[in-house]
Design goal:
Strand order of the largest sheet: 3-2-1-4-7
Largest sheet: 5 strands, mixed
Strand content: 15-25%
Number of helices: 9
Order of helices and strands: EEEHEEEHEHEEHHHHEHEH
Bound molecules: zinc ion
Helix content: 25-40%
């Protein structure tokens, strides 16, 4: 039997214990109040490491020696355990998170290796694990304040899919990174608020359904942008399974997306893709973080 501890750190921290890739026991959350938004924004990086270590230690306390691996999923560019960038948790930018957490855990008597993964990659790993398709290419778009792209199996690279260029229109400059023409500059929540200074994104989608021309035009652009991003990845890595999740996945209409995608992917060997919406949850990323950590042991 393999035992792993999976942790997800996004707007909050959720941790759980996995036995043979399955969750056992209760999840631990910080803060306890699930409704608290941006609870981690003001917590210094060092304290975040302590918070992670406390949750891991509590889950490992039954038998610390039985834990094979610890996986932590965080948003941002993650390479070799280092958080190279993390726009939504800026205090961990540049942090050697795997190393820092390993050290704090060692002081608590926990010696299992720590593996850090991008949160969208962890969702892709979690989907692959829970559906018994760890040997298949699985890709995930996370639609939230930013736009994340994740893939399983992990391959070396940056994979900032949310920042691929989907338009040459020089006026498209709402991306949080400052880049022109980016997918997130059209689809991201913050970007939509900058575009529609008089309407919240929820109102834009609601008015589009009622037939408002300006909003309908934008909702179509939003879906076309996602189709363009998806089509680009199909043309690079091939067809396969694409999943869509995240806080704002409720804005997505698969039929509209599919229509645009069909206009963009015309080579017949590339048309065998599937599209599926997943309700957002923390468990999938948590399982994926643990599974990625176990797989990393074998590399
Ligand atoms: Zn960007």
């Amino acid at each position: 039997m393999t035992t792993a501890i999976g942790v997800v750190m996004t707007e909050h921290i959720v941790a759980g214990r996995l036995e043979d890739h399955r969750l056992t026991g209760n999840l631990l959350r910080y803060p306890d109040d699930a409704g608290a938004l941006d609870a981690l924004a003001a917590v210094p990086g060092g304290e975040l490491v302590e918070l992670l270590a406390s949750q891991i230690a509590s889950l490992a306390s039954v038998d610390p020696a039985s834990v094979d691996a610890i996986g932590v999923a965080v948003p941002g560019i993650i390479r070799s355990g280092v958080v190279e960038d993390s726009p939504n948790l800026p205090q961990i930018k540049g942090m050697r998170l795997a190393e820092a957490l390993t050290k704090v855990l060692a002081a608590r008597g926990i010696a299992a290796p720590v593996h850090v993964a991008n949160d969208a990659d962890a969702i892709a790993a979690g989907v692959a694990a829970t559906r018994g398709q760890l040997n298949k290419l699985t890709r995930v778009w996370t639609i939230g304040n930013g736009i994340g792209y994740g893939r399983w199996p992990y391959v070396e690279g940056v994979w900032e899919g949310g920042h691929i260029t989907v338009t040459l229109d020089a006026k498209e400059r709402f991306c949080g990174c400052g880049g022109v023409g980016h997918l997130e500059g059209i689809m991201g929540y913050r970007a939509m608020r900058l575009r529609f200074l008089d309407l919240e994104p929820e109102e834009v989608f609601a008015l589009a359904r009622k037939g408002d021309d300006r909003c309908r035009e934008f909702v179509d652009l939003w879906h076309r942008a996602l189709a363009a991003g998806t089509a680009s990845f199909i043309h690079l890595a091939g067809p396969g399974r694409f999943y869509f999740t995240g806080h704002n996945v409720g804005f997505l209409e698969l039929s509209l997306l599919r229509g645009h995608l069909e206009s963009m992917v015309k080579m017949s060997p590339l048309q065998s893709y599937s599209l599926e919406i997943l309700p957002p949850d923390d468990e999938t990323a948590l399982i994926g973080a643990g599974v990625s950590a176990l797989r990393a042991l074998a590399w």
